[in-house]
């Protein structure tokens, strides 16, 4: 191990670096070779863990649906039904439009984001060290050149992708409920309006600027809120892990507190998604 890799800074940097894959003139390249690859660099650890956890979510709920019965439910069925009813109640209280998509979407967001956040409770050195061992023994790669971030929501690319999906749904619902003309009017005739046609025309650029900023700020805040909270939590786990065996009691204390953050951030992301889609589908204008 190189001396520079023994420092706390290099330890933190290693744990906060994604496993990258990119295409170069010489073919596929990985990690450090992708430092200048530009936009089209794939974070393969984020993709693998997020897709894997998404499949796990589908398998769990599919299994619960297949085993569901009208008699006395088992503990597993009760647990799944509690989650479904919890999400359904929040959608019913928050979304004031009519759509068969919102409840399944809200359930997917809540459980999927929760599972991705939950990976933060796995000791920070365990899976990255295992990945390094596999790379070193199986492929002859220096273990310190193998990167593995197992919490997808600590990657701004993942949270931005989730927020972008919500943003596209907001626009889609807005156009569906109001029509293209109504959607454009909402962006250009609010919040300032006047009965004088000339004044109203002059106000259009200001309204468009303010409404566009307000529209874009919603997914932007969604992405940064989830990323910031989970990134900060992961950083604290890494700092605790750097102290050696004495990390165990501190890790436990922080993990107990962080469970609240994990659940809360999944809930907040779900609720804001429902609120934004409810606002987009509102016909008040």
TrEMBL record:
Membrane topology per the entry is: Multi-pass membrane protein
Q: Which terms in the GO cellular component ontology are assigned? A: plasma membrane; proton-transporting ATP synthase complex
The highest taxon in the source lineage is Bacteria
Q: According to its UniProt record, where is this protein located?
A: Cell membrane; Membrane
Q: Does the keyword Membrane apply?
A: yes
Classification via PANTHER family: ATP SYNTHASE SUBUNIT A, CHLOROPLASTIC
HAMAP family reported in the protein's UniProt record? ATP_synth_a_bact
Name recorded for this polypeptide = ATP synthase subunit a
């Amino acid at each position: 191990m190189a001396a520079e890799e023994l420092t706390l800074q290099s330890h933190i940097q290693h744990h906060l670096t994604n496993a990258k894959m990119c295409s170069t003139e010489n073919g596929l390249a990985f990690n450090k070779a992708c430092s200048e690859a530009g936009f089209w660099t794939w974070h393969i650890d984020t993709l693998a863990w997020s897709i894997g956890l998404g499949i796990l979510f589908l398998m769990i709920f599919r299994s619960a649906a297949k085993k569901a019965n009208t008699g006395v439910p088992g503990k597993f069925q009760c647990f799944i039904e509690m989650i479904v009813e919890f999400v359904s109640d929040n959608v019913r209280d928050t979304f004031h439009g009519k759509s068969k998509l919102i409840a399944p979407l809200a359930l997917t967001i809540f459980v999927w984001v929760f599972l991705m956040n939950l990976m933060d409770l796995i000791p920070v050195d365990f899976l990255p060290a295992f990945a390094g061992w596999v790379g070193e023994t199986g492929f002859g790669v220096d273990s310190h050149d193998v990167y593995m971030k197992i919490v997808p929501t600590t990657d701004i690319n993942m949270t931005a992708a989730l927020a972008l999906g919500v943003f596209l749904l907001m626009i889609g619902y807005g156009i569906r409920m109001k029509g293209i003309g109504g959607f454009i009017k909402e962006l250009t005739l609010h919040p300032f309006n006047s009965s004088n046609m000339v004044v109203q025309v002059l106000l259009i650029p200001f309204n468009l600027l303010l409404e566009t900023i307000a529209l874009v700020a919603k997914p932007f805040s969604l992405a940064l809120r989830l990323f910031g909270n989970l990134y900060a939590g992961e950083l604290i786990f890494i700092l605790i892990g750097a102290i050696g065996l004495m990390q165990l009691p501190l890790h436990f204390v922080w993990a107990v507190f962080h469970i609240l953050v994990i659940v809360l951030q999944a809930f907040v992301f779900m609720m804001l998604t429902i609120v934004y889609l409810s606002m987009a589908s509102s016909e008040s204008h």
